[in-house]
Fold this sequence. Notes:
It is built from four helices and no strands. By secondary structure, the chain is an all-alpha fold. The chain has one domain: Methane Monooxygenase Hydroxylase, Chain G, domain 1 (Up-down Bundle), CATH 1.20.58.
Amino acid sequence: MTVQDILQLDSCSHGEQLDVILELSRNMLLTAQIKDWQTLASLEESRSRSLTAFFSQPVPAQEAAAVGAGVADILAIDKQIIALSEVAYKEAADGIRQLNYAHRAALAYEQGE
């Protein structure tokens, strides 16, 4: 989503804006599932700008329940993204640890010759 897209959200209803934000959140989850962390960061920046624009105006009372449900959906998606990123972090840390072990083993072997 570009800055222009976000600016155009101002002309949309709160419901339409929320739909866009939810779609960004779902795309973030899909991106996390394929471990495309750079794209995830970009999508998160777009969503953050969208959320700022969304909450810069008061939510009409008649839309409060729908907005609350949408926010709950966003939070649930975020929990899944966090869980995926924690797994990826642990995998990366394990990979680095394995490389360090291999490097130390190679050094020990070389010193033993």
